[in-house]
Design a protein that fits this description.
The chain is α/β, with parallel strands linked by helices. The protein contains seven helices and seven strands; from the N terminus they run H-E-H-E-H-E-H-E-H-E-H-E-H-E. A seven-stranded mixed β-sheet has the order 3-2-1-4-5-7-6. Strand 1, helix 2 and strand 2 form a beta-alpha-beta unit. About 45% of the residues are buried.
Length: about 220
C-alpha cells in the first residue's frame, strides 16, 4: 500500500504487517466499530474501513501522524474519524468492537517523555509504558463482545502482557509471531539492552508477537 508519510511518522514495517495479517485472520464481523490506537500513517484504520467496518476511529498523539492518516484515508475515499491526542485521555466513555494497536514498545535509557520521531517507539525503561496503559484501559474501551489485537516485541514481556490482560477479565492468547533482524534503533541500544538482560549475548533478532484479548 502506497502511503503518504511525513517526517516524524512511523513507517509501516514488519510489526505493522504482522498485525494486518492477524486482523485479516481474525474474522472480524462486518459493521464492527473499530479503533486504531497509535495509527501512524493510518494503515490499520484503512484496512478496517476496507473490510466494511461500521465505523473506524483512529487516534495518535502526533499531529503529523493524524494529518497523514487523514490524507491517506481521504485519498481512498474512506471516512475515518481522526483524533489527535493521548489515547489515555481522549477516549473516555466510548467503546469499540475491535481495537487494533501498534504502540511504542522499545525500551530506552532516556528519562522523561520521548520527543520527535522517538515517540513512535520509545516506551520507558522496560518498553511497557504504553502497553501497560492499554492493558488497564482495554476493559473500558471494549464492547461486551469486543476484541483487542496488539503487537509488540517479546523483549517487553509477552507473559506480562497476557497476565495483565487476564487480570482485568479478558481471555488472551498469542495469535502470531515473527522473528526479524534488529533495526537501527535496537542495534544502537544493544549494549544497554544486554546490560539490562533484555537480550542475550550475540542476539541480533527480536521476536514480535500479536496478542489477542477477548471478552470471555
Amino acid at each position: 500500500m502506497m502511503l503518504i508519510r511525513p517526517p516524524g511518522v512511523y513507517r509501516p514495517q514488519a510489526d505493522t504487517r504482522l498485525l494486518v495479517d492477524a486482523l485479516n485472520e481474525a474474522d472480524v464481523p462486518r459493521h464492527s466499530r473499530v479503533l486504531d490506537i497509535c495509527t501512524g500513517t493510518g494503515v490499520l484504520a484503512i484496512q478496517s474501513a476496507r473490510a466494511r467496518a461500521a465505523s473506524v476511529t483512529a487516534v495518535d498523539i502526533s499531529r503529523s501522524a493524524v494529518a497523514a492518516a487523514w490524507l491517506n484515508s481521504r485519498l481512498r475515499g474512506l471516512d475515518i474519524e481522526l483524533i489527535l491526542g493521548d489515547f489515555r485521555k481522549v477516549l473516555h466513555g466510548r467503546s469499540f468492537d475491535v481495537i487494533v494497536t501498534n504502540p511504542p514498545y522499545v525500551p530506552t535509557a532516556v528519562e522523561g517523555p520521548p520527543r520527535g520521531i522517538a515517540r513512535c517507539w520509545d516506551a520507558g525503561h522496560d518498553g511497557r509504558s504504553a502497553i501497560d496503559a492499554l492493558c488497564r484501559l482495554a476493559p473500558q474501551l471494549l464492547s461486551n463482545t469486543g476484541m483487542l489485537l496488539m503487537v509488540h516485541s517479546a523483549m517487553c514481556g509477552t507473559d506480562t502482557t497476557l497476565t495483565r490482560l487476564r487480570q482485568v477479565g479478558l481471555k488472551t492468547a498469542v495469535v502470531a509471531r515473527a522473528s526479524i533482524p534488529f533495526g537501527p534503533v535496537l542495534r544502537r541500544r544493544a549494549d544497554w539492552l544486554l546490560a539490562r538482560s533484555l537480550i542475550h549475548a550475540g542476539q541480533q533478532h527480536e521476536e514480535l508477537v500479536v496478542i489477542r484479548a477477548d471478552r470471555p
